[in-house]
Automatic annotation (TrEMBL):
Superkingdom of source: Eukaryota
Residues covered by region (Disordered): 55-78
Pfam family, one: Myb_DNA-bind_5
InterPro entries attached to this UniProt entry: Myb_DNA-bind_5 (IPR028002)
Function statement: Involved in transvection phenomena (= synapsis-dependent gene expression), where the synaptic pairing of chromosomes carrying genes with which zeste interacts influences the expression of these genes. Zeste binds to DNA and stimulates transcription from a nearby promoter.
Domain Myb/SANT-like DNA-binding as annotated: residue spans: 6-75
Protein name: Regulatory protein zeste
Subunit structure: Self-associates forming complexes of several hundred monomers.
Originating organism: Petrolisthes cinctipes (Flat porcelain crab)
Length: 78
């Protein structure tokens, strides 16, 4: 599997803005089936919008964007 380039500062900000609009779902700690499904749908929506904002880049998966978001959260909390 080829590695994609790291997110630029502009892309990180775009990702954070997309997540901020859906913060109550993305950062919900509940493991209820309805919440898990809502999170999955929300991340799919974030991926579609993020990739639409970056058409010249290789499309990112939800796993890649989640990992980037987790990295940003850890970095900010350090």
């Amino acid at each position: 599997m080829d590695r994609t380039a790291p997110l630029s500062q502009t892309q990180r900000m775009a990702l954070l803005n997309l997540i901020k609009e859906r913060d109550s779902i993305v950062n919900n700690k509940s493991t209820a089936p309805g919440i898990i499904e809502a999170k999955k749908r929300t991340w799919e929506e974030i991926v579609l919008k993020f990739n639409a904002l970056n058409p010249d880049q290789q499309p990112r998966s939800s796993k890649q964007l989640k990992r980037s978001y987790d990295h940003v959260k850890r970095k900010c909390l350090s």
